[in-house]
Known about the structure:
Blueprint: E1 4-7, H1 11-22, E2 27-31, E3 44-45, H2 50-56, E4 66-75, E5 78-91, H3 94-107, E6 111-114, E7 128-130, E8 145-153, E9 160-164, E10 175-181, E11 187-194, H4 201-208, H5 213-221, H6 225-232, E12 235-245, E13 250-251, E14 258-259, E15 265-266, H7 274-293, H8 299-324, H9 331-342, H10 348-354
Parallel strand pairs: 1-2, 1-7, 2-6, 4-9, 7-14
Antiparallel strand pairs: 3-5, 4-5, 8-11, 8-12, 9-10, 10-11, 13-15
Helix pairs in contact: 1-3, 1-7, 2-7, 4-5, 7-8
Bound molecules: flavin-adenine dinucleotide.
Amino acid sequence: MKPIRIIGGGLAGLSLGICLRRKGIPVELHEKGNYPRHKVCGEFISGITKETLARLGIDPLFDDALIHHDINWWMGSELLLTEELPAPALGISRFKLDKRLADMFQREGGQLILGKRIPLENNHNEGCVWATGKPVNPTKAKPEWIGIKIHAVNTQLNGLHMHSSTCGISGSKGGYVGLAEVENGRTNCCGLFHVRSDIRPADAHSRWSSPAAVLMAYAEACGMTELLKLMKSWQYDPESFTATAGFSLGVQNSQAGFSLGDAAWLIPPFTGNGMSMAMESSAIAATWLEKYSADEINWHEAEHGYQSDAKKHFSRRMKLSKLMHPMLFNFPGQQILKASSKTKTLPFKSIFSQLRKP
Ligand SMILES: Cc1cc2nc3c(=O)[nH]c(=O)nc-3n(C[C@H](O)[C@H](O)[C@H](O)COP(=O)(O)OP(=O)(O)OC[C@H]3O[C@@H](n4cnc5c(N)ncnc54)[C@H](O)[C@@H]3O)c2cc1C
């Protein structure tokens, strides 16, 4: 079998590596960081089926994940809806999950090379798959978005909670925060915000003297009063604080070559579908890479076959999320969401399901 080289050991790269190893394909995986590590992520997994996890060979890794059945959505101080999820979601930290995947990849005989960043040139090298996550957007001088995450400890929060911003008619800077319980009584607090130059980490820390101060400053600026009350009452694990900026949401054009996960499709985080997409794209890629490795098709055919299947699989949710995302930030959109939730006409379950369908 011809070998495959994977660059990037997040969910996409590691799940692909495990799947290919199980097919007897030699795999070398390069990850610039190390494990375990915290990542900016809502840690709420939804959309991927048990069958796809089994096809990848990683289903046992989720056996002890928390199972979330419902969601509460707040806009500012107003509870917009409490709904049962159309399908249960999983809660597990990236600290735990990525380490488990890395260990499994090595147990399956994969070669894991840590601590070195591979330059992104030569994307088209035969046998090389890019699973490097969110590309830095070189076209934007200033970052538009910032993602921030921290774990609160000893919490008791059932289900999932989303808090989104409120804004005035002229206001456009906003964001949202997802709270999802993970293992050991921890609640992951993760937000995506428009970057604000008026929020400085030093000021935020002198105001709240909490490891979650920056997230609290953004929550306050976005009118998330209920969230702020909750966050002020919690204790945090300072080691779990992470932030990321300088990326664009949507289909990623800058990344050429055989790429999967966020490197190819960066769905807005409010959907809670990015991790699922990373693993779904691995399952699609594995079929084509197996044929390439067995010398049934050439690299060009494998790349094009994968891209065409992935496009069919992800286009609908990318288009819908692109339409929905701005509604969370602009005044008319927020009014529509509020009015439809009051009159119980917000088709939450249908939108949730459509955002996960091929
Ligand atoms: C604020 C926010 C909240 C989110 N919340 C959720 C959520 O609740 N649910 C959900 O499903 N998704 C969520 N997501 C999305 C989810 O985190 C991603 O979709 C998922 O992590 C993508 O996996 P990936 O493997 O493609 O990339 P990543 O997990 O980012 O992995 C990429 C890996 O590649 C490595 N790497 C990068 N460049 C190189 C290089 N040149 N050489 C070597 N290694 C390299 C990185 O170190 C990293 O380990 C959220 C995202 C954000 C920003």
